[in-house]
Structure formats: structure tokens, C-alpha cells
């Protein structure tokens, strides 16, 4: 009888622990996670989070703004469930992902953004060549102003020129918006910011910044490109970049639910409303009766 009693108690404990463990596992429509994004993509990520959580009121997504490189480290250390990236990971970073996360490296692409070169509205400059950008990044004049070290903008430009960020010469004003707002104080400089900082068509802050800035066209191989959606879609603008999610979630929980939403039609509509180019295009059909 005692043996049966102890077996019953043991089963109850196992059941209780199993129940508690089940409670900890989130689902696509219930739970809480942390997502990290570089400040350059804050606007579009914030819009996606707001839309997703409004459709799934039992979810809570803590959006943390952190430099791209640091966000990747937090993902590997499992301090964040999802991160937004824009640059290609190095071989070593992919190996670290494979080792620490033990999942296939599978980026979930959701938007085309761009790195812009901007000057004050009254500047006589209209364009800048890829060659000039490269030369300025090797000049002691440090004419280009980035939003910080470890930032997505600097990482992406360095990667485009097959350089390490530490090999480049540049100035810093922390934050994309601060670069845009303070640029008028440095008339001989050129700001380097993300398109998403100013892309939201009806965003009050984005409109204010657009009124202060002139976006330089980029010249490459004797062709001049602006940052139109058509040029982002075809990746003709030389500094177009694709935004993608990485996750360490090994099951279909809140992280993967959010990623799937962002890459499918409703999420892509949010991306479009942000003024960015959706990565996954959906054919729109109108039925006439």
C-alpha cells in the first residue's frame, strides 16, 4: 500500500512539473518574448510588433533597441528570441550560430531598406559616386558621419567595400535621427542614415526629418540611382539591403509566429505602409461583379 502511495505522489509531482513546464512554453498567440533591433530598423520593427500584438492580445513582445552586432550576441546567448539583421554574417558568426543555437541558419527576409547619404536641404550637392564614398572612408577628413560603431549602417557599408569597420575613417553622431537633426551644424559633412529613419510616409518625425534633408543620388558605373521603391525592388540602388529575422526558437512559438506574420501578407502590408519595399510580394486580385 505504501508503495502505491509513493508511486501516486511521484506521478503527481511529475505531472505538476510537466504542467509547469508547459506553462513556460509560449505559443504564436500567447506568451512573452524579447526582440532586438538596431535603431536603423526600429520604425518598421515597432510597426510590425504593434500590429501583431494588437491581433494577438495575449502576447507581449518587448522590443529592445540595440546595435546590430550586440543584438546578434544576445541572440546567441539566448537573451533575445529574435533579432533583425541587415548584413551577411561572417563564416565564423554562422559557425557560432550553428554551435550555440543548433538550428539551421535560415534568415527570414521581410523588407528592402537602404543606406542613404544625406546633406542639409540647402547644400549644392545633388549626388555622390561610389568611388567618392570609398575615398572619403579612407580620408583623414572623416567627412562621412555615421550613427555609431557596431551600427548596421557602418557594418553594411564596410561589408560592401570588403573592409572591416575598424579600417574605415569616419565621424560619429549617435543615432540616425541625431545625425539628421545635427547635420546642419556641419555643412562640409555628409550624413549616413537608414532609409527607414525617414521612410514612413505619414510619420510626423519622419516628415520633419525629410524636410531638413536632401538625399543624394548615388552614381555607379556612370549611372545615377535614387532611392525609389522601384530601385529597391530590383536592388539597382547600390546600397540597397535586405532586412531579415534570425531566431533561436526551436519550436513554433511566439518568435516564429511573429516572423511568419511579418513575412506574409498582413505583415508585408505593414512594411509597405512604412514606406519600405516588401520582400515577399503578393498578387492583388480584384473581382468585378
TrEMBL record:
InterPro entries: PBP_domain, Phosphate_ABC_transporter. It comes from the Bacteria. Gene3D superfamilies: Periplasmic binding protein-like II. Residues 24-262 form the PBP domain. The keyword Signal applies. Pfam families: PBP_like_2. PANTHER family: PERIPLASMIC PHOSPHATE BINDING COMPONENT OF PHOSPHATE ABC TRANSPORTER, PHOSPHATE-BINDING PROTEIN PSTS. This is Phosphate transport system substrate-binding protein. It comes from Epilithonimonas mollis.
Amino acid at each position: 500500500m505504501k508503495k502505491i502511495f509513493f508511486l501516486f505522489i511521484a506521478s503527481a509531482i511529475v505531472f505538476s512539473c510537466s504542467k509547469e513546464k508547459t506553462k513556460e512554453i509560449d505559443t504564436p498567440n500567447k506568451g512573452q518574448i524579447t526582440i532586438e533591433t538596431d535603431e536603423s530598423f526600429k520604425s518598421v520593427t515597432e510597426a510590425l510588433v504593434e500590429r501583431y500584438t494588437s491581433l494577438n492580445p495575449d502576447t507581449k513582445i518587448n522590443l529592445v533597441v540595440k546595435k546590430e552586432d550586440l543584438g546578434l550576441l544576445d541572440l546567441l546567448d539566448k537573451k533575445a528570441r529574435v533579432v533583425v539583421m541587415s548584413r551577411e554574417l561572417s563564416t565564423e558568426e554562422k559557425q557560432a550560430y550553428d554551435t550555440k543555437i543548433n538550428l539551421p541558419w535560415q534568415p527570414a527576409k521581410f523588407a528592402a531598406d537602404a543606406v542613404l547619404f544625406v546633406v542639409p536641404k540647402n547644400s549644392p550637392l545633388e549626388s555622390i559616386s561610389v568611388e567618392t564614398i570609398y575615398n572619403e572612408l579612407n580620408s583623414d577628413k572623416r567627412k562621412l558621419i555615421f550613427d555609431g560603431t557596431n551600427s548596421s549602417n557602418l557594418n553594411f557599408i564596410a561589408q560592401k567595400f570588403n573592409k572591416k569597420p575598424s579600417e574605415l575613417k569616419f565621424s560619429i553622431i549617435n543615432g540616425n535621427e541625431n545625425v539628421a537633426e545635427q547635420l546642419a551644424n556641419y555643412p562640409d559633412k555628409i550624413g549616413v542614415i537608414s532609409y527607414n529613419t525617414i521612410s514612413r510616409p505619414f510619420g510626423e518625425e519622419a516628415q520633419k526629418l525629410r524636410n531638413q534633408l536632401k538625399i543624394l543620388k548615388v552614381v555607379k558605373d556612370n549611372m545615377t540611382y535614387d532611392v525609389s521603391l522601384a530601385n529597391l525592388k530590383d536592388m539597382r540602388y547600390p546600397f540597397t539591403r535586405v532586412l531579415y529575422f534570425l531566431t533561436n526558437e526551436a519550436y513554433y512559438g511566439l518568435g516564429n509566429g511573429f516572423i511568419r506574420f511579418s513575412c506574409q501578407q498582413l505583415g508585408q502590408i505593414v512594411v509597405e505602409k512604412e514606406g519600405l519595399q516588401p520582400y515577399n510580394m503578393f498578387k492583388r486580385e480584384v473581382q468585378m461583379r
